[in-house]
Amino acid sequence: MKTWNRKVLAVSLTLAMVAPLAVACSKGEKAVDQQERVLRIATSFGYGDDEYFRQQFTEIFEFANPNIKIEMIPTMDDRYRYGGIQPGEKMPDPLEKLKEVMQGDNPPDVVMLGYEQLPDVIESNLLTQLDPLITKDKFDTTGIVPAVMEGMKNAGGGKIYALAPMFSSSALIYNKKMFMDAGADFPKDGMTWDEVFDLAKRVSKGEGDNKVSGFNFSTQAQGDLFYGLQTYTAPLQLKMFDDAGEKMTVDTDQWEKVWTRIAQLQKENVFPDLFDPQKPMGRKMDAEHPFAYDDFMSGRLAMSIINYGQIQQLANANKNAALYKGYTPIDWDVVTMPSHPEAKGVGGAIYINGIMGINAKAQNPDDAWKFIRFVNGDDWAKLKSYSSYNLVARSKYLKPKDGQEFHIEAFYNVTPAPVDNNTQIFRDKPYIYQVQEIGRQQFDQVVRGKKTAREGLKEWQTQGDAMLKQMKDNPNQPVPMPAMSAVKG
């Protein structure tokens, strides 16, 4: 009965907030605006006419505009989702399919795509520039957070071709007590990576099960340092291979500088101990250590990069600490992601969600803009701001939930890292991840002190080039990994 009442209350609140919107939308509008129309939305994702997509993006608009029918056009091949790709078969490209549909006989009005796909569609002249519409309607974009607005402008060469109502982001979280115990200053916004690493050295202490590490790229225990490192390298635009995916690009001074720096920090015990399969994992998750899988929540890590979606788990653990034997509430806060001097303020862990633009060949461009304006407006943001996992793009509705107090601005006062064109290569060459795996193995040898950074990078370059050539000669065929003995040197 209580569950039913909660559902009724939730629906009532939603309708109560939406009803004024419906009235506002109808005020002063001409009778012709009440004619039934169809708004076609195409996506390069797996959304069909499913409930999630409507709840997330279109439901409120449909309620406020009952005369406009939403029609979804998914362009992702179902084999992507259900594993129907056969060995040797080329994977269909959702972006190419989307571009084809956008120029077809019955083109969609609105398109929804990923951030890494946006520059391609813009350069192909398939989207309508939104700046004139924004100016004409005096649509306020000043309240949209930099993490989203700058990302949209960067993708369009300074012009706006799409808007996005939500995003997820990461920040640097820190344990206040550990800093106070070490007599060290708290982290602050706008720090460089080197400043963070210097702070990490000051709070690192102990060894074994009593070790407290100063920093890691992830809160996850036994996490892989190589993959976490991508947060550090993304703003530097370090690439594994060229834009064609045919030649490695890792045997460089910049790559060497990064690997050497990280290996030295590992030696100085800034990061958690490397995984050793010959040793027990230390604390295991049990009644005594319920959050052993998380180094920060287990009190073994002073600073880490944390996604906004993880905040709720930490807040719930603190709130219900009495229920978790062995858990000590953590006094914490967050600051902006560190950045490199050559890319000041640029973070490497931002995902912009719900990117939508108007098809240059839209059959119903007026309703397309009406929809985009609505979904990116104040009222929509206000209603959606109660999410615990996604952040709305309008800053005035970004506030900590459930009476929490923390520096939430840290999650959005940053600029996304530039788009990585390698995303397309991974789609076109499904086995290219094996080249990345060679890098992981070589990096592991470097941080364990078994070879220098340059030696590891040269080996990665040589073996990677050989694999890329095999992939070019025999596309979509599995490529044997080099023998481990060759990788270890």
Automatic annotation (TrEMBL):
Source organism, top-level taxon: Bacteria
Similarity comment: Belongs to the bacterial solute-binding protein 1 family.
PANTHER family recorded: ARABINOSE-BINDING PROTEIN-RELATED (PTHR43649), SN-GLYCEROL-3-PHOSPHATE-BINDING PERIPLASMIC PROTEIN UGPB (PTHR43649:SF31)
Family annotation (InterPro entries): Bact_solute-bd_prot1, SBP
UniProt-recorded name of the protein: ABC transporter substrate-binding protein
SUPFAM superfamilies for the chain: Periplasmic binding protein-like II (SSF53850)
Compartments it resides in: Cell envelope
Signal peptide as annotated in the record: 1-24
Transport among keywords: yes
Coiled coil: none
Pfam families referenced in this protein's UniProt entry, alphabetically: SBP_bac_1
UniProt KW keywords: Signal, Transport
Region annotated Disordered, chain positions: 470-489
